TrEMBL record:
This is Transcriptional regulator DauR-like HTH domain-containing protein. It comes from Kribbella solani. Residues 65-125 form the Transcriptional regulator DauR-like HTH domain. It holds the Pfam family HTH_22. Transmembrane segments: none annotated.
Length: 128
């Protein structure tokens, strides 16, 4: 399976999506099976997303807060004390790490940076 050209060519994309390449014989109903010349070659198992929104309490205790700590350490100081450009970079790093997938994350990030939620959204829109 991994030796097949299709599997090799999609491997970087699958890794970027935090997905997994699966032998088609082991594929589940929710996996995506890919064919080559009409024969199944590889299946892709996508990561499971929560079906319920994550409660704000869980975000505060884990996800977004831990990502904020990581980014602050990476940028070398408290997020509130960063320059405008560094705050923009912090928002982009947080986005790349999935921070904005959590409910109420923009408010939490804005508070940590000492800016408004509107400013966080502006930083995200500028990057796009």
């Amino acid at each position: 399976m991994a030796e097949h050209p299709l599997a090799r060519s999609i491997a970087p994309l699958v890794e970027r999506l935090n997905a997994e390449l699966i032998d088609p014989a082991d594929a589940r109903a929710d996996d995506v099976t890919l064919e080559w010349n009409g024969k199944p070659v590889v299946a892709v198992r996508l990561p499971i997303k929560p079906t319920k929104p994550i409660k704000a309490e869980k975000v505060v205790d884990g996800g977004v807060r831990s990502l904020l700590v990581e980014v602050a350490e990476e940028l070398g100081g408290p997020l509130r004390e960063l320059s405008r450009g560094e705050k923009q970079r912090a928002v982009l790093l947080l986005e790349a790490r999935g921070a904005f997938e959590y409910r109420k994350s923009a408010e939490i990030v804005a508070e940590a940076l000492g800016v408004t939620r509107f400013t966080v959204y502006n930083y995200l829109n500028r990057a796009r």
